[in-house]
Amino acid sequence: MNNILGIIFITAGLIFDFIGCLGLIRLPDVYNRLQASTKCVTFGTCSILLGTLFIIGLNTAGVKCILTIIFLLFISPTASHALARASLKANVKLCDKSLGNDYK
Fold this sequence. Notes:
Layout: H1 2-26, H2 30-56, H3 60-89
Helix pairs in contact: 1-2, 2-3
């Protein structure tokens, strides 16, 4: 049962990561790309780690998976916010199709 749950979580994580990679290629500007990559890659990587935890069990590697998930949940949104704020301060323009910039 644990192996099946692990495979399901790993597959879902791979799909999320793939969608995040497509977002990096397809979206028009840095702000949209940050949105796609942060959400999809955070959920995708956490799902892969959770699936790995289900498969290998709660041993030293499992504890490392849990700690990495906690680390990713805190650091990834913070890093994304820092990159978006730095892009805004560096006057990186939005794409032409964006509706507006609430910070101006």
